Amino acid sequence: MNFSLYLITFVFGTIVGSFFNVCISRLPAGASVIFPASHCPSCQQRLSPLDLVPVLSFFLLRGRCRYCQAKISARYPLVEMVTGFLFVGLVLAFPVDKAALSFVFNVIFVSFLILITFIDLEQQLIPDVLILTGFLAAASFYGLKFAWNLPRLDYGFLLWPLFGTVAGYGTMFLVRFIGGIFYKKEVLGEGDVFLAAMIGAFLGWQKVLLSLFLAYLIAAVIALVLLLLKKVNLQSLVPFGPALAVGALVMIFWGEQLISCYLRFIFY
């Protein structure tokens, strides 16, 4: 095992995660993610490099601002660690020396999923800019892969993201439409529908359908636990974006194996 490679990847992931924290805080408000420089949201004091060391600064400062002692959200080290571990997982699943394009593609896809998950958890919304940029990234990947493997791929390959988009959007639109009729209220946000379409653009139609099934299963389990703990009630709105993101992550790492198992179960 190349421990140094995994360590470097993890550190790089935490640095990227630190930038993601800025995006999570600012994108919902439509603010620039570059200017102004990182600062304490309580006292507005500009943070020094020592305050911005991923993960470590949070624990060295005991979760409080160095200048005003305001509490720092645990979301900051959590996002950094999650990003670091997921990047290491991608190195293991898609070795850079053997699948460079797939590795870069999945790093970009996972980055969108991380941002959307934590923004939806905090704000219960999914910024349009992330969905639109995600579609553009997926289209760019399929175009590059087609050009890279031109002698071995037919033009039908370029339709994969389109089929995935239609499958993701169509499935969620039907759930939203039928659920609205049955429950007499909105059961899914419009952002969730477009997120499913974006996931479909990345994964293709087979994987997106299975990822949606997993997302509903995950959401049902979490909702049941929250109901039993009396953290929510039947009228509460629970963000569905994180469940969609987790379902997509499962398909990134184990999608081929799950589809193979499913097909063997059905046909044998």
UniProtKB/TrEMBL annotation:
GO terms for cellular component: plasma membrane. Its EC number is 2.1.1.-, 3.4.23.43. GO terms for molecular function: aspartic-type endopeptidase activity; methyltransferase activity. It is found in: Cell inner membrane; Cell membrane. One of its GO terms (biological process) is signal peptide processing. The chain crosses the membrane at residues 6-24, 76-94, 100-118, 125-143, 155-175, 211-229, 236-255. It is a multi-pass membrane protein. It comes from the Bacteria. InterPro entries: Peptidase_A24A_bac (IPR014032), Prepilin_IV_endopep_pep (IPR000045), Prepilin_pept_A24_N (IPR010627), Prepilin_peptidase/N-MTase (IPR050882). Residues 11-94 form the Prepilin peptidase A24 N-terminal domain. Residues 108-224 form the Prepilin type IV endopeptidase peptidase domain. It catalyses: Typically cleaves a -Gly-|-Phe- bond to release an N-terminal, basic peptide of 5-8 residues from type IV prepilin, and then N-methylates the new N-terminal amino group, the methyl donor being S-adenosyl-L-methionine. The keyword rRNA-binding does not apply. The keyword Transmembrane applies. It holds the Pfam family Peptidase_A24. Keywords: Cell inner membrane, Cell membrane, Hydrolase, Membrane, Methyltransferase, Multifunctional enzyme, Protease, Transferase, Transmembrane, Transmembrane helix. PANTHER family: PREPILIN LEADER PEPTIDASE_N-METHYLTRANSFERASE-RELATED, TYPE 4 PREPILIN-LIKE PROTEINS LEADER PEPTIDE-PROCESSING ENZYME. Belongs to the peptidase A24 family. Plays an essential role in type IV pili and type II pseudopili formation by proteolytically removing the leader sequence from substrate proteins and subsequently monomethylating the alpha-amino group of the newly exposed N-terminal phenylalanine. This is Prepilin leader peptidase/N-methyltransferase.
